[in-house]
């Protein structure tokens, strides 16, 4: 190869290398710019993502339940409790009752005011309501009590009462409690009040039902089942006492002994428990209606600051 051609070859190679390096640098620069551009778009997209939406739990509504315990004539104390609650604008949305509590509770659920309940109580003569019979299953049929209730609620069935209501009885064959919230109001109350060996059991659907106090003395659990989330229980039972004698005293004592454990299980589920001092009354003190009403009113008023405080605490916690 001549010197001239050699010089041209070297110059050509030099220009080629320079051109290649320039193209390579250009490609690298373009890649860097493209990468930065892509990252810039990514940052922009990330910044434009909206903040997560925090869904707050809806406030829970307060549903007050009123669980009225059994106690025969002592049950008139429930009227006084209801009067005190109404005066303080505390209205139950769920009512449950056992025995005497089912009687007062059904009338209250129908819509009677405390004053009307008081007047109705004066119409309740135990002799007029007692339809005596001669049977080994009981000495009172209970049909008159059923008719009395149905007449006062104008034959309104349980499911159509103004306030949600459950009457609690006991299945005599299984020993289990049962809540009636559908059907004939008078029949349900009659079953709930059918003290064994005093009232004849109520026959329904091949089952025999007796007093609810044998299985749920104060039916707090049934108030919970019906949706109450704040429950006021009214316990009109008496503690077993020594030295009591006589047929009526022995009867009271027997009921009190049977209900002690069951009562504790029910009351521990309540938010507030009202204990009217019914020590001066017996299950058969039908001649002391006003005294029982006054005792119930006094007991509820004594508890009113606590009831209001606990309701306020509940509302603060759930809202």
Count of domains = 1
Helical residue percent band: 40-55%
Fraction in beta strands: 5-15%
Helix and strand succession? HEHEHHHEEHEEHEEHEHEH
**What is the average of the pLDDT values?**
84
Low-confidence stretches: 1-26, 39-46
Description:
By secondary structure, this protein is of the alpha/beta class. It has one domain: Cytosolic phospholipase A2 catalytic domain. It contains ten helices and ten strands. The strands form two sheets. Strands 1, 2, 5, 6, 7, 8, 9 and 10 form an eight-stranded mixed sheet that branches.
Question: What layout of secondary structure does this protein have?
Answer:
Layout: H1 3-48, E1 64-68, H2 77-87, E2 94-98, H3 100-110, H4 114-122, H5 126-129, E3 132-135, E4 138-140, H6 143-152, E5 164-171, E6 177-180, H7 185-193, E7 202-204, E8 207-211, H8 220-225, E9 230-234, H9 247-267, E10 272-274, H10 289-318
Parallel strand pairs: 1-2, 1-9, 2-5, 9-10
Antiparallel strand pairs: 3-4, 5-6, 5-8, 7-8
Helix pairs in contact: 2-4, 2-10, 3-7, 6-7
């Amino acid at each position: 190869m001549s010197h001239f051609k050699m010089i041209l070859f070297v110059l050509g190679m030099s220009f080629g290398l320079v051109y290649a390096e320039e193209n390579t640098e250009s490609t690298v620069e373009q890649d860097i710019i493209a990468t930065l551009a892509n990252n810039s778009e990514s940052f922009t997209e990330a910044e434009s993502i909206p903040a997560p939406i925090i869904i707050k739990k809806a406030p829970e509504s307060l549903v007050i339940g009123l669980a009225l315990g059994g106690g025969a004539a002592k049950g008139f104390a429930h009227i006084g409790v209801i009067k005190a609650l109404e005066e303080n604008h505390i209205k139950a949305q769920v009512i449950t009752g056992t025995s005497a509590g089912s009687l007062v509770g059904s009338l209250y659920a129908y819509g009677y005011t405390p004053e009307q309940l008081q007047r109705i109580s004066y119409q309740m003569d135990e002799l007029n309501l007692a339809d005596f019979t001669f049977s080994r299953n009981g000495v009172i049929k209970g049909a008159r009590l059923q008719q009395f209730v149905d007449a006062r609620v104008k034959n309104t069935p349980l499911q159509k009462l103004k306030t949600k209501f459950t009457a609690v009885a006991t299945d005599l064959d299984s020993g289990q409690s049962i809540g009636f919230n559908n059907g004939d109001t008078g029949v349900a109350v009659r079953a709930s009040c059918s003290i064994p060996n005093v009232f004849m059991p109520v026959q329904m659907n091949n089952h025999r039902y007796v007093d609810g106090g044998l299985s749920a003395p104060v039916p707090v659990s049934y108030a919970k089942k019906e949706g109450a989330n704040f429950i006021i229980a009214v316990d009109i039972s008496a503690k077993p006492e020594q030295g009591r004698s006589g047929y009526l005293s022995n009867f009271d004592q027997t009921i009190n002994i049977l209900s002690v454990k069951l009562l504790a299980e029910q009351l521990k589920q309540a938010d507030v428990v009202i204990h009217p001092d019914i020590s001066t009354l017996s299950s058969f003190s039908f001649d002391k209606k006003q005294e029982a009403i006054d005792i119930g009113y006094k007991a509820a008023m004594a508890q009113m600051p606590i009831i209001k405080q606990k309701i306020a605490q509940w509302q603060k916690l759930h809202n």
